[in-house]
C-alpha cells in the first residue's frame, strides 16, 4: 500500500441502533488512495458513471477513493464488543510502509466515545490482516501487551493457522509475520483468545458467518435484534464501488472465492432493510444497498 498518502486523522463517533443493539463507530484514520491502486479493474468512465452517489463520502474531487480505518463498538446485553482494531501504533511494516510507526490518538478517541480499553469485554476480528488487528496490542515496557486487559479476543482459527504458516503472499509475507508477532501472538500467549471456525455466535444476536476468499477465515458479522438487521462487512467490500461489479477487487488470497463472497453479500442485502456497515467506507460508513436504474448503489435511507 505504498501509494497511500499521509493518513489524515478524523474524529467521529457516529452511532446507530439496530433493535436493542447500539453501534458506535470510532475512527482511527481517513486516507485517500488512487482508485487505480485500490481497484485496478475500474476505469475513469466507471467512476464517472457512479460519481453521483459516490460523492462526497467515497471519492474526492479528483476521483480518488476515500477510505477509512475504524472500529465499531456494539453495546448489547451489558457487553461491549469491539469489532476490528485498525493498524495500531508503533508497528514495524515494510510493504505497507506508510502504516509503519504510526502515532495516532485512537485510544483517546475510543475513550472519548465512552469506551476506555478496560471497559471492552470482547474484541471480535473479521479477519487477521494488519489493518484489522493492530490495536489488539500496545508497546509497553519493551514488549507488546494486550490493549484490552479484560477482553476475550475472538479470532478465526483457520485464519490464524494460515498466517502462522506464512501464507502465499510473498510481497506481504514479512509484514504478516510481523502482524502475528506483534498483534496476534501476544494476546494468544496472554490466554485471552477464543478461537472459532465456521459460523460462531459472539453474543446473542451477534454472529460471525464465514465469507472466505479475501482471506481464509474472513467473516461477516451479522447483527439481529428486535426484527432489525445489520452487517459489518470487514473486507468483503473495501469500497462501495465494488457493489457495482463483483469482479472489481483488491488483494484477495483466493480471488474466485472472494468474488463469490461479494456476490453472496450483494444477494443478502440488495433492496432489503439491512444496514451495511463498511469497515473501510468513509463518510458515514454505513447505508443500504438498493437498485437504481438497474444498478446497485448505496443510500442513507432504508428501502
Could you walk me through the main structural features you see in this protein, from its secondary elements to its overall organization?
23% of the residues lie in helices and 30% in strands. It has helices spanning 35-38, 44-54, 106-112, 130-133, 157-164, 170-189, 255-269, and strands at residues 15-18, 21-33, 65-76, 79-83, 122-124, 137-140, 143-146, 152-156, 193-196, 200-203, 206-210, 219-225, 228-232, 274-277, 286-292, 295-299. The radius of gyration is 18 Å and the shape is globular. The chain starts with 14 loop residues before the first strand and ends with a strand.
In short:
This protein has 303 residues and is an alpha+beta fold.
Averaging pLDDT over every residue, what do you get?
A: 93
**CATH class group:** Alpha Beta
The radius of gyration computed from the alpha-carbon positions, rounded to a whole number of angstroms, is 18 Å
Reported by name, the CATH topology is Metallo-beta-lactamase, Chain A
Counting structural domains, the number is 1
**Main sheet: strand order:** 1-2-3-4-5-8-9
Order of helices and strands: EEHHEEHEHEEEHHEEEEEHEEE
Topology, pairings included?
Layout: E1 15-18, E2 21-33, H1 35-38, H2 44-54, E3 65-76, E4 79-83, H3 106-112, E5 122-124, H4 130-133, E6 137-140, E7 143-146, E8 152-156, H5 157-164, H6 170-189, E9 193-196, E10 200-203, E11 206-210, E12 219-225, E13 228-232, H7 255-269, E14 274-277, E15 286-292, E16 295-299
